[in-house]
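re: ur question from earlier - yeah i can do the single chain one, its not a big deal. heres the input i used so u can compare w yours
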Amino acid sequence: MDMREIVRSERENTEIVQGIYAAFERGDIPAILKVLSDDVEWYVTGPKEVSHAGVYRGKAQVQAWFAVVAQSLEMEAFEPQEFIAQHDKVAVMGFEKMRVKTTGRSVENRWMMMFQLHDGRIVKFFEFDDTAAVAAAFQA
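and the output i got, formated as tokens:
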């Protein structure tokens, strides 16, 4: 692959990831699921107190993850701020403010999410949060 192909691939991968965030903002989970590989691996850091932390494999488990997020969190702000692409990966740095529905506690969190793509599909996803702050919001 020459440099022009790498740059085009990085641009296309970034556009796919930006589309995921646009779909999330609209609440269009089916659009997100469409760009996942069937055997996607979805990793979210955090201790057991955080309802959505864990490892999820396959589209059905990721769909269930989105349902847990919707049941447990109310997003007050969600801002992907910087996209960094290299070869088959897109890293996104951002900010969110969310309220945990069971405790009523809000938390501001700077996060980093990493997407790995293959043939236009997400094959791996990693989310890195301020796990201490998020876990504290889940505790009564």
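DSSP finds four helices and six strands in the chain. not sure if urs matches, ping me
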